[in-house]
């Protein structure tokens, strides 16, 4: 199904014919339509006009509904998405929110007995139930849901596989059980448990969960930069390769055409992080230690395994390291991070990082902003991108951080050995952390990534494909044999950590504040 603007409206200004984008789902297409429509109005400085109110009808022209019960509900969903595209409820501390009008009130999570039940006389399901919630009725197992605690023991006991657990996609996708059913049967997010990994955004088949967007803030900053005397920098995560069907040089040109003063690759920040993290690992005399570049992983440890916080590296993330480096060298700088990550939107809001980066965009949002501006990246004349090391660029894929830290130690001529393990997904991270805390993990350095496969499969990517890792590998090779030290020296060395961000940490001298 396609969403087409039914007629030229004020928000179609600047629209040009651009290459057709492939959408993996209709939800993804709807999201792009809304973001692009809001971005067009922002570029034209028409957000305060009635044009904003016309967007729902222009995206959902009718007369027949194609997604919901009626076009009025479809338009109401679009209205909710417009609010999130404009930053959402700023009073709500949650970065990821449920759109109540869009939530389909999926069947309550429960364990049920299917038609495969044979009514066997062993009754293993009944015997293992710790709450006596299962009884036999008409030679079939029956579950009393008022007693069931969803332990799943009956599922494992049934020899026919007749007992199953039905879960909402958002609940199943949440690795920290931050989503539950509210009293109105709508999904509800516990902000105190949420780590902003964005998995629920991907998993909800109705598009009822969405992360707040800062596209309007970015556009307004670009439009006012000259008047305010600002230099707005774009720092681009290396996982952008393969997302826009263009060369790195063409993307740099497109971002400058959009109004950015300059563009830098976050892989340079990764080189800074790898160098500093290697030094910290050496200072800890070989760990045990974990990486700190993934904000969702760090949030998981802080909120769900607080006793293990001392294991997390205190080195800032590549985003923060590069943002600090730019601002140390240009007092007029404002920095916008562009990447595949939803959790970065939480990270830049933290008090300990706010001075480093000003705004965050996902690749999906960047696509919408470029589209709204009418910029075709495939037709741009290339402008060279900063040459980070291949190790810095490798941060984008699983195993890349661990490899970079090991290389950092090598370049320091360190005698400390890094025995690394790359953990992909929160479950793997949790298991490795538990083993490390008990001293039974063979490795002494954990690379913690909340997304399976690393940043290349983040919730803000345009194309979610196994090929993404291959694109990053190709991007790494293009860096040649440049070392981490050479990359850091090329930009004048590491940025100094502001005095107010330093702190005495156990296990070493004055260390950088954790991000």
Descriptive notes:
The protein is of the alpha/beta class. Helix content is 37%, strand content 13%. It contains 19 helices and 17 strands. The chain has helices spanning 26-43, 51-59, 71-85, 124-128, 153-157, 169-173, 199-203, 215-228, 248-258, 266-283, 295-304, 318-329, 343-347, 363-373, 390-393, 400-411, 426-437, 467-477, 484-490; strands spanning 96-98, 110-113, 134-137, 140-143, 163-166, 179-181, 187-189, 209-211, 231-236, 262-265, 289-290, 333-339, 359-362, 420-424, 445-449, 503-504, 510-511. The strands form seven sheets. It has a four-stranded parallel sheet with strand order 10-9-12-13, sandwiched between helices. The chain has a three-stranded parallel sheet with strand order 11-15-14, with helices on both faces. The longest helix is centred in the N-terminal third of the chain and has 18 residues, at 26-43.
Shape: globular
How large is the share of residues in beta strands?
5-15%
Separate helix tally: 19
Poorly predicted parts:
1-16, 497-515
What structural class do helix, strand and pairing data support? alpha/beta
